[in-house]
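Q: How would the structure tokens look for this protein?
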Amino acid sequence: MRYASKPCQVAEFLQCKLCMALKRLMRSMARAMSEATTFIGGGSDAVATGGAELSLLVVRLRPAWSECRDLKTGDVVLLEDIETAFIPGEVIGVRVASTGARDGVRTVLGSIDSRDRSAALIPLTPHRLVPRGSWDPHEQFRDWQPENRPPWMDGLIKTGPRGVFEFDTLEVEADQPAHERHERLRELGDLDGAREVLFDLLERDLRGLSAFAALGHLAFDADVDVAHSYYSMGIAVGERSLSTARGCLLPWKWPNNRPFLRCLHGAALCCWRKLDYQRARELCLRLITFSPGDDISAPALLQEVEAGRPYGPGF
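A: Here is the predicted structure in token form.
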């Protein structure tokens, strides 16, 4: 009875529920047919049923579908899916059950055979790492007495001097109006609008680690698993550029390093919050190894994690 005064809202709610139920039914029927049918036709308006397999790179998310790139052809593909939480940068293997078109763009319905978030399959040009001198741990920690040094500090001293680098500047990272628009929308509480700005940046260049860090931040309070996925994807994309500079330092003092370090820091917080102390400790140590200063409280975070204390704000 409490809904009687709002019939339009009730009708809209029921229509939405019915639409979602029909999509789930279509998915179930398509999966049941996938093994018994073959590809028919070609091009963006083709109709296909089962048999074909696609390797798709997710580039942005919508409520009922994900915009992807076919890694073989480079074509845009809309993957219809209302149940699976994908992440931009994820590569998914899809067994096609049926295809169609929406506004001239190919749509695909099918089953997910594989998911890869390692960034190894993404066709990316690595960041250029800009040399910024060298770092000597003996100089950095000269005021510490040996008996007072934590184990991680002894490890860095034993490793000795290392090269210092900074990620090069990307166009999407330098797009100040876009980043300011994201911040403004976030402050106004329009999280969907803020996410759309970040998806736009990632669609332009998946190497934009600031967007991954910001997406993780937006999701952290509501869904720590989703936040962890965004942070981890940013780490994986960033690491694609580090193979040419093993053992390098990426100090916080150099601004272009901060997005990568924020992804590491966010992932460590997620693991700590999920009580995965071992993984949180590993991420804290990596964070300190890349940036041994105390700019983002990594040593203090490591201390909390190693003590087995529950997650708390302030880091």
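The domain at 129-306 is CATH 1.25.40.10 (Serine Threonine Protein Phosphatase 5, Tetratricopeptide repeat).

Confidence is low (pLDDT under 50) at residues 1-14, 23-49.

Upvote if useful.
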